[in-house]
């Protein structure tokens, strides 16, 4: 990796380090009081930890609004899809979804996902060892989203810097604001140029997406592009590091997948269940209601803890264990309902391709026996920041 990328990786690690380092123990303790608990802050807000409770909040966008994102995320990204409620969200999503069709996904698989996986492995394969998070999980989805946005290779360095720095808002607002401004300055003329043209990159697709004869204005597309940059890369990067940490800590499970590649999809889903990269999301109750018997006041904040819901003992036996052979039951790492992750099929394709390509290229892939065992850390974003492996 270039030296600039090393610096960016350190920043990515700092962003992931916020919050309690071992949140699962905390969630287990809180869940003893029930699937929905009042927030310890005592301001009337509630925390949903059970699978059914989290699912109910995600699926009821009319009772649980996403508008609260405007204060924090919106101040940096602009008015993005994340903070929209129906009916505004419904129309906007129908427009941007056109850029994520099955056909587009297939073409990105062949043009970007497979070639980037191969070329990153080419860089470290001859060494017989690598740090899978730093050298693979981190740059892989970042290069793919850059390619999807038609950012030329010569601009990848600065684009990647903005994509990482826009997340620094929780620590250094000015760094995040500068990154948001730079992304806007970079993409606005490219969106204008793409109007009326044909092309299958995301910018051209977004510039020309049409619904009932209307198109998105450039000012409407920019917040989406700002959101997409980190949404598409840092989630997938963290998810892949967590998946590999789970697998490599169970050599018999790596062996099973290496022997039978049909196990790859369930291994990927188990990784997402066991350690989703994003732990919790926020909603605001639009009316007085009740969640699993707990009263919720109009205007109350509702924190939905995906990381806890994915380990709900009422849904999964021995939920803290990483086990690719467990009976498949859908998890909630990609949310549900109106705001279900728009990139879930792309993320799944990236994770499955990455795992398949690593197993194919790196025989006898295993943890570096001389390195300390990898640990997944972070209270809000979860990542195995160091994942030294040997192979061959
Ligand atoms: C493993 C990887 C990923 C995970 C776990 C993940 C998870 C999520 C979750 C939980 C949400 C809902 C947030 C909320 O409503 O508060 C979401 C929304 C979203 N995700 Fe992902 N995501 C992943 C990858 C991606 C990728 C690759 C893309 C882009 C191509 C993407 C684009 C988006 C967008 C645009 C939204 C907003 C959708 C809306 O508000 O309607 N995500 N994601």
Description:
The protein is α+β, with helices and mostly antiparallel strands. It has one domain (3-390): Cytochrome p450. 52% of the residues lie in helices and 10% in strands. It has 16 helices and 14 strands. A five-stranded mixed sheet has the order 1-2-10-7-3. A three-stranded antiparallel sheet has the order 4-14-11. Strands 5-6 form a two-stranded antiparallel ribbon. A hairpin with a 5-residue loop joins β12 and β13. The radius of gyration is 21 Å and the shape is globular. The site of protoporphyrin IX containing FE (HEM) has 24 residues, from α12 and α16.
Report the uncertain regions: none
CATH superfamily: Cytochrome P450
What is the string of SSEs from the N terminus onward? HHEEHEHHHEHHHHHEEHHHEEEEHHEEEE
**How much of the polypeptide forms β-strand, as a percent range?**
5-15%
User: Which class in CATH terms?
Assistant: Mainly Alpha
Q: State the helix count.
A: 16
What would the CATH topology be?
Cytochrome p450
Looking across the biggest beta sheet, what order are the strands in? 1-2-10-7-3
Mean pLDDT: 94
Quick recap:
By secondary structure, the chain is an alpha+beta fold. The protein is built from 16 helices and 14 strands. The protein binds protoporphyrin IX containing FE.
List the helices and strands and how they pair.
Layout: H1 3-16, H2 23-31, E1 36-38, E2 46-48, H3 51-59, E3 64-65, H4 69-77, H5 88-97, H6 102-124, E4 129-131, H7 132-137, H8 139-148, H9 156-165, H10 173-194, H11 202-208, E5 210-211, E6 214-215, H12 218-248, H13 251-259, H14 264-274, E7 280-285, E8 289-291, E9 294-296, E10 301-305, H15 306-309, H16 344-361, E11 366-367, E12 376-377, E13 383-384, E14 388-390
Parallel strand pairs: 2-10
Antiparallel strand pairs: 1-2, 3-7, 4-14, 5-6, 7-10, 8-9, 11-14, 12-13
Helix pairs in contact: 1-9, 6-8, 6-16, 8-12, 9-10, 9-12, 10-11, 10-12, 12-14, 12-16, 14-16
Bound molecules: protoporphyrin IX containing FE.
């Amino acid at each position: 990796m270039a030296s600039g990328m090393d610096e960016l990786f350190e920043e990515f690690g700092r962003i992931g380090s916020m919050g309690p380092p071992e949140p699962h123990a905390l969630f287990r303790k809180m869940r003893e009081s029930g699937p929905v608990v009042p927030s310890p802050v005592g301001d009337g807000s509630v925390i949903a930890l059970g699978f059914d409770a989290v699912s109910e909040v995600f699926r009821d966008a009319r009772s649980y609004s996403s508008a609260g994102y405007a204060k924090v995320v919106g101040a940096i990204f602009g008015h993005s899809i994340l903070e929209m409620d129906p009916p505004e969200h419904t129309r906007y999503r129908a427009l941007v979804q056109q850029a994520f069709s099955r056909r587009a996904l297939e073409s990105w698989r062949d043009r970007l996902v497979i070639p980037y996986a191969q070329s990153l492995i080419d860089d470290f394969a001859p060494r017989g060892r690598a740090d899978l998070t730093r050298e693979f999980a981190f740059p892989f989805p970042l290069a793919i989203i850059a390619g999807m946005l038609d950012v030329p290779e010569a601009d990848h360095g600065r684009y990647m810097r903005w994509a990482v720095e826009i997340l620094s808002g929780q620590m250094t607002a000015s760094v995040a604001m500068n990154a948001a401004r730079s992304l806007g300055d970079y993409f606005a003329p490219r969106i204008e140029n793409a109007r009326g043209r044909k092309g299958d990159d995301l910018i051209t697709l977004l510039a020309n997406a049409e619904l009932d004869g209307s198109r998105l204005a450039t000012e409407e597309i920019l917040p989406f592009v700002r959101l997409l940059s980190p949404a598409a890369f840092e989630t997938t990067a963290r998810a892949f590091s967590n998946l590999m940490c789970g697998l490599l800590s169970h050599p018999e499970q790596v062996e099973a997948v290496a022997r039978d590649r049909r196990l790859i999809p369930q291994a990927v889903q188990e990784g997402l269940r066991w350690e989703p990269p994003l732990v919790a999301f926020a909603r605001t109750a639009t009316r007085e209601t009740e969640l699993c018997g707990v009263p919720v006041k109009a205007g109350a904040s509702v924190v939905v803890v995906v990381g806890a819901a994915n380990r709900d003992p009422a849904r999964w036996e021995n939920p803290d264990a990483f086990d690719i052979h467990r009976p498949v039951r859908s998890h909630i790492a990609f949310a549900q309902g109106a705001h279900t992750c728009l990139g879930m099929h792309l993320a799944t394709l990236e994770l499955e391709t990455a795992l398949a390509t690593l197993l194919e290229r790196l025989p006898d892939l295993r943890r570096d026996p001389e390195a300390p065992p990898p640990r997944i850390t972070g209270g809000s974003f979860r990542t195995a920041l160091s994942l030294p492996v040997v192979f061959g």
